[in-house]
Fold these 3 entries.
Entry 1:
Amino acid sequence: MEKADKRCAIIRAALELVAEHGFHGAPMSMVSEKAGVAAGTIYCYFDNKETLIRETYGYLEGRIVETVTKRYPGDRPVRERFLHVGEALIRYYIGSPLEFRFLEQFHNSPFGVEHRRDKFMGKRGGCDIFRELFEEGVSQQVMKDLPLVILFALSFGPILTVVRDHVLGFVILDNTLISRTLEACWDGIRR
Amino acid sequence: MEKADKRCAIIRAALELVAEHGFHGAPMSMVSEKAGVAAGTIYCYFDNKETLIRETYGYLEGRIVETVTKRYPGDRPVRERFLHVGEALIRYYIGSPLEFRFLEQFHNSPFGVEHRRDKFMGKRGGCDIFRELFEEGVSQQVMKDLPLVILFALSFGPILTVVRDHVLGFVILDNTLISRTLEACWDGIRR
Amino acid sequence: MEKADKRCAIIRAALELVAEHGFHGAPMSMVSEKAGVAAGTIYCYFDNKETLIRETYGYLEGRIVETVTKRYPGDRPVRERFLHVGEALIRYYIGSPLEFRFLEQFHNSPFGVEHRRDKFMGKRGGCDIFRELFEEGVSQQVMKDLPLVILFALSFGPILTVVRDHVLGFVILDNTLISRTLEACWDGIRR
Amino acid sequence: MEKADKRCAIIRAALELVAEHGFHGAPMSMVSEKAGVAAGTIYCYFDNKETLIRETYGYLEGRIVETVTKRYPGDRPVRERFLHVGEALIRYYIGSPLEFRFLEQFHNSPFGVEHRRDKFMGKRGGCDIFRELFEEGVSQQVMKDLPLVILFALSFGPILTVVRDHVLGFVILDNTLISRTLEACWDGIRR
DNA sequence: GATGAATGAGCGTTCATTCAT
DNA sequence: CATGAATGAACGCTCATTCAT
C-alpha cells in the first residue's frame, strides 16, 4: 500500500467510525483495525486523535466547498445562486451520508464549536461564498434585513435537519421534495 | 434528604455536567459528587448511565411540553399558535441554556437518534401538540402541503440553530429579533 | 484487608520495585500485582505514579528522621553527635537495603533533584537537625569553615557510597569498619 | 559523512539526551534525529539501546582516564598525586556537565551497577591508576589502613557530591573551594 | 436503602526494533 | 550500508459498575 493510500485509509476509517458511533465510540484501536494498519501507524500520520479528527474534517470541508463551488452560477440572481448552493449541499450530503453524519458529530463536539467560533471571528475559510451571497442578498434588498447569523440559521437549519431526517429514513428526499424544500427556505429569507 | 429529592438531585447533576462537558465528560463519579450522594447510590435509582441520561431527557421533555402548552391559544388561528409555540421554545431555551445544551448533546448521541426514531414510528410523546398544529395548518391550507417532517425541519431547524448561536454568543436574541425570526419561519412554511 | 493496610501494601510494592528496577522498571501494573490489588485501586490512594513515588519517599524520610533523632545526644559535643547521626544512618540503610536503593533511585530522578532544591531553598524538612549540627560545628570552630553544602558532601558522600558498596557486596561493613569510616569522615570535616 | 563520524555523532547525541532527560527520556528516535541519521541507522552501529548506552559510557570512561592520566605526576608523593587526580576529575566534570550528568545516570541504572561489579571483580579497566595510588598510599602508611573500597568512598563520594551540587547550582566551586575541598578529602583518608 | 472502596477492561499514546527498499 | 515507515506490546490512567458493610 502506498503512503498516501494508508493516510487516506486511516481518514476513511475515522470518518466511518465517528459517523456511526461518535467521537468516543471510535477508539484509535478500532480506527487502526478498520484501516488495516497497526495501532502505532496512525501516529506516523497524525499527532493525536484530535488532529486526526480535525484533518478528517478539513478533508471533508474541502470536498464540500468544491461541490458547492462547481458550476456556481456567479452571474445569476441571488435567488438562483441560493437554490444552487442549497441543492448542491443537499445532494452532496444525501449521496454521502457517512460524511454528513461525521460533520454533524464534529459540529456538535468542542472542536466544532471552536471551529465555528474561529471562522465566525474572521479567520475565514471556504464559507466566504456563503457570506458573499447573503450579504449581496441583503444589500440588494431581495433578502430580509436580518443579521447574517439569522439568515444562515433560516437556510442551513432546515437543510441540515431535512438531510438528517432523510439519512435516518424519516423521509425520502426526491427531486421535487428537494426543490420544494429549498423554495420554502427561500420564502423564509426573501423579502 | 427525601427519596424524590435525591433522584432529582442526580438528574440535575447529570443535566448540568452533560450540558457543560458532554456525555463523555460527565463521569458517574462526578455526577454523584455534584448530586451529593455516593457513587453507588445512583444505581439505586437508575439501572445504568444510559438510563440516567434517558430519564434526564424525559424530565426535560416534560418541562418543555409544559412550557409550550401553558397559555397555548388553542382556539386561535394556526399562525398565532405557531408563533406562540416558537416563542415559548426560544424563550425557554434562552432562559435555560443548560437544558438546551443537554438536549443538543442528547439529540446528537446514538440515544437521541434512537429516541427520535421511536417517537416517529408511532410511540408518541409530548410532540402531539406540534403534530396537531401542523396537520391542521396543512388541512386548512394555510401551510404548504409538505410532509410533516419537512415542515418540522423548516420550523425547528432555524429555531434550534438560532438559539445555539445565541448561547454561543454569535448573536443576541432580543425581543424584536425573536419575533422577526419567527415571522421568517412562518414565511417559510405558510402557503 | 484494611484500608490502611492496602495503602501500605501499595507503598511497599512501589518501594521494592523501584528499588530493584528503578522508576521506569516499576510499572503501575506490576506495583498493583505485587500489592495484591487491582490496577485501578492504586488510584484510590494516589493521584498518579509521581505522587505514589513521592509519598513513598516521604514515608521513608519520616522513618529516617525518626531513626536519626532517636537517642540523639543533643547535649553532647558536636563530634559525638556527628558520629551518632552517621552511625544511625549507616545502620538504618544497611538494615533496610531496599529502602536505601529506593532513596538512591529517588535522589537521582528529576523528583529528587527538585526535592533537594526545594529543601535547600528554605522549605526545610527533617534535615534541620543536620543543618543545626553543622552550623554549630562551624561556629564552634570544631569544623572547617566551609560552606554547608561542602560539609554535607564530605559527610554524606562517603556514607552513602560506603553503604552502596556494602549493599552491592563489595565490602562488608562490620562494627569496626563502620566506626573507622565515620572517624575518617570526621577527620575530613574537623578543623 | 564518514562511518566513524556517524558513529561518533550517535554517541554524542545519546550522551546529551541521556544527560538532559535521563535514560528513559532519550528515545532512539530522538537520538537518531539529533545525530542526523535515520532511525534504523543506529542499529548498524549498535545492537540495541543498551549497547549504545554502554558504549557511550565506555567512550566517556576513556576520556576521563585520559584526563586524569595527563600530566599525572607519577614520581611525586602520594598526597600530591591524589590532589592532582581529584582536581583533574573535578575540573573535567565541571567543564563537561553533560558528561557528568550522563555518568550519574549511568551509575544509577541497572547497567551501572553491573558494570561496577564487573570491574570490581577483576576485569579491570582504566581505574588501575586509582587502585595503584591508594594501594601505595596504604603501604607507605600515609593513608589510613582501610579497605580500598572505603578509601575510594571517602575520596570520590565527596568529589562527586560536590560536583553535583555545583552542576545543580547549590554551590559555586571556584579555585580555592576546589582545593580546600580536596584538602578536606585528603584529611579524611590520610593517616 | 445507602455507601464508597474496589474492580478491571479499555482508552490514547510511546518507542525499541524490524525490514523492504 | 542506510533508510524511515511500520509495527505492536506495554505504558499510565479512567470510569461504569459492583458488593460487602
Entry 2:
Amino acid sequence: MALARYLIGKMLVRDAPDGRAGGRIVETEAYVPGDASGHAYIGETARNRSLFLRRGHAYVYFIYGVHFCVNVSGETPGVGAGVLLRALEPVDGIELMRARRGMRRETDLARGPGRLAQAMAIDRSQDGVDLCSRGPLWLGSAPREEGRIKTSVRIGIRKEAHRPLRFYEAGSPYVSGPPALRA
DNA sequence: CGGCTGATGATCT
DNA sequence: GATCATCAGCCGG
C-alpha cells in the first residue's frame, strides 16, 4: 500500500495531559483489503470498526493482554485496511517518553509497535481519532528528508507471511526486528 | 548475540 | 476455549 511507504519520515505527535511527545515514523506495515492476516479480514466488528473509516484515522487495539498497537486506516469508508506503525525515532518529549517507558536507551523507546504505544501513551481512548487534524494524536510533516526506504516481509504474523508489505528506513537504529530486517 | 518463555485480557467462535 | 500485528527477562554460547 502506498500509504505505508508515504508515512515513513512523517511525524507522529501525541498531546497528553502530561505533555507532548513526537517522533519520526521509521517503520510501517501495510494490511491491505482481503489480506487474511489483517484485522479487517473477518469483516467489521466493534473492535475493528476504525479500520473501515476514511483513510487517516487511528485504529488502536490491545494485544497479548499487555500491549497496544496503532494503525492508520488506509482506504475509503467501508473498506477495511490499515498501516501498522511499528517504530519511531524519538524527536520531541524524549524525557517524557523515557519516564513512560522506565528509563531506557533512546533506541529502545519506540522500537516496536508495543513500545511505541507505551512511549506515546496511546490506548483505546485514541481509537477512531482523525490523525489528519490536530488533536490528542496526529500526523505532521516530515522534519527532514528520509533515508533510503526498503521493503521486507512483515513481522510476527503467521498468515500471508511471505508478502513484502513492511517498509522501513534502511540502517536506522530505531527500526525493530532482527538485524537482517533492519539493514 | 540468538533462542525461549511467561505474562495477561479482549475478542470472537 | 483458542488465538494473538508483543515484550522483557533469562539462559547458553
Entry 3:
Amino acid sequence: MTDQYSAATRPVGRALVRQARPHAPTTPRPETPGADLGRLTRHLGYLARRTQIWIFQDFIRTLAEVDIRTAQYSILIVIEANPGLSQAVLSQTLGIERARLVHLLDGLEARKFVQRRRSISDRRSHALSLTAQGRSALARIKALADEHEQRIVRRLGRKSYKTLLRHLAVFAYG
Amino acid sequence: MTDQYSAATRPVGRALVRQARPHAPTTPRPETPGADLGRLTRHLGYLARRTQIWIFQDFIRTLAEVDIRTAQYSILIVIEANPGLSQAVLSQTLGIERARLVHLLDGLEARKFVQRRRSISDRRSHALSLTAQGRSALARIKALADEHEQRIVRRLGRKSYKTLLRHLAVFAYG
DNA sequence: TATTGTTATACTCTATAACTATA
DNA sequence: TATAGTTATAGAGTATAACAATA
C-alpha cells in the first residue's frame, strides 16, 4: 500500500510551481499548518512521512534536469555497486516489486544507461550492468544528488543531520 | 508525486502475509538486503523512506481491526483537535489535496465518524466535527495507535526514539 | 515443483482542470 | 474575481495472479 498519515508534496522554489511536468509539486504546504496537529507530532511515522515528502520534493526538483527520479536513482546506484546482479536480487535489495522493476529497467535500458544480459550460470535470470553511457550519466547524477544532500545538511545543521542518519539506519538495514 | 528511492512495503508478522486484504504487505523485505546499497545509506531521504514504510506497515496492521489507515487517522485527530475547521484548512494542515480529502471525508461520514455542517459565517465552507460515535470510535483507535507507537519505541530504544522525534520535527512544523 | 522475468489487472495516492455555489 | 467544495481524469506506485522459460 504505502498509505499516508498526511501526505502530499510541496513546492519550494516558486519557479517550478504550476509547471507542465506531471505530478510536480503544487499541493498544500506542510509548513506553518493552519490548525493544531494534535498528537500527530508525537507519532514518529507522521514525522518520517513529512520528512520523506520534503526531501523527495527537493530531490526530484534537483534532478529534474537529468530526468531521474528517486526509484531510478536507487536502481542505478545499486547496479553500480553490484554489477552483474539479477533483477530478483535488485528487487529484494531495494524492496521494489519485481513486476514494477521490469518497467523501470525498460526505461533505463531504452536510455542506454543499463544493460540486461542473460546470466551464464542461470539462464532464467538477467545480469544487470551499467553501460559506458550509464556510468558517464551517473557521474553528473551523483553530483546533483550531492547538491541535494548538502541542501538537507544546511537545513538541519550538520550535527542534527548526522544524528538522523545514524538513528534511522535501523529501519533500512540491520 | 511522492516517488520513491526504494519503495515497498513489508510483512513483519507472518500471520498476515498473503492475506486477502488488498495491498497488504507481501513485498521484498528491506532488512538484510541481498546486495550492497552503496551511497544510498548516506542519503537521508532513502533512510526516511524506508523508515516511513516500516512504520506505516506496522500502523496499518495494528489498526486493521478498526479499518482505519494513516490518512483517515490523521484526519480524525486533526478534526478532534480543531472542531469546526473547514476542509480547506484541514487540507492545508495535513497536506492532503482538497480533491482527495472529499473522498476521504465521504468515507468517514458514511461511517458516522464525522459530520459536515454548513458554516454560518461562510456558507461556501463546511464546519467539520466528530460525531458522538466518532469520538467513541476514536478512543479505541487511539489506544491501538499508542500500541503501535510503543512497538516503535521498543524497536528503537526510548532514547533513540526521542532523539528522532526531536530532530525530525523541523520538516513537519517549524 | 520452484524460481526468473514478464504481462496484466485492480487499487491507492498525487496532480490538475473544470464546475457550482457562494463571497 | 476569487474561494470552498466537488467531480473527473491522468499519472505514479503497490499488490497480485498467471504465464513461459528454465532450474
